[in-house]
Please model this.
Amino acid sequence: MYLGGLCFIVSGTEDLTCLEAASMSLKAGVRWLQYREKNKDRRGLYIEALALRLLTSKFSAVLTINDYADIALAVSADGLHIGQEDLPLTEARKLLGPGKIIGLSTHSVQEARRAEAEGADYIGFGPVFGSLTKDAGPPKGIAEIRRIRASVRLPVVAIGGINHGNIESVLSAGADAAAVASAILRGDAEGNARMLLEALKPGGKEIPVDF
Model:
């Protein structure tokens, strides 16, 4: 499965619904959405995830679901993203099968190596910088991306405080892609997404991730 170098972690805000934010980012050219919503019950999550699946299908975009393997299966999402305290990766793979993407959040070289050994398709790594969206611990910094890149062969998706001003440095350090939330959601979502995508194209060439 082919993905561009930008993952938009989509949710609703006070100003935008989740679907509005998703639609704006897709119109800007984003082709990978990760649905992460902490303020809905399971039925609400399912309904919104199903709407996102229909929307992403229109744009031939990838949809992954945060945390919930059952919802990923129910809406025929392309995959699942889980954290260190969620369902174990090996069990998630049993549920989803070999044809789905499974990514795992990691915060150290040891966790990254374990994720690779257990069969993750990619690792999320961070927070690289201080995050406005989620408190995931102290920033790891650019140098730690280089250590992770030297330790695993999996695609590395950096996360945490990434914006259009620093995304190029993250990729130059060895990350294959960047995951963002507030960098798109705060302000003009479509315009923000366009700026991030432009920052991904030094010399006009898109940076791909191929899982």
About this structure: The longest strand covers residues 101-106. The two ends are 5 Å apart (CA to CA).
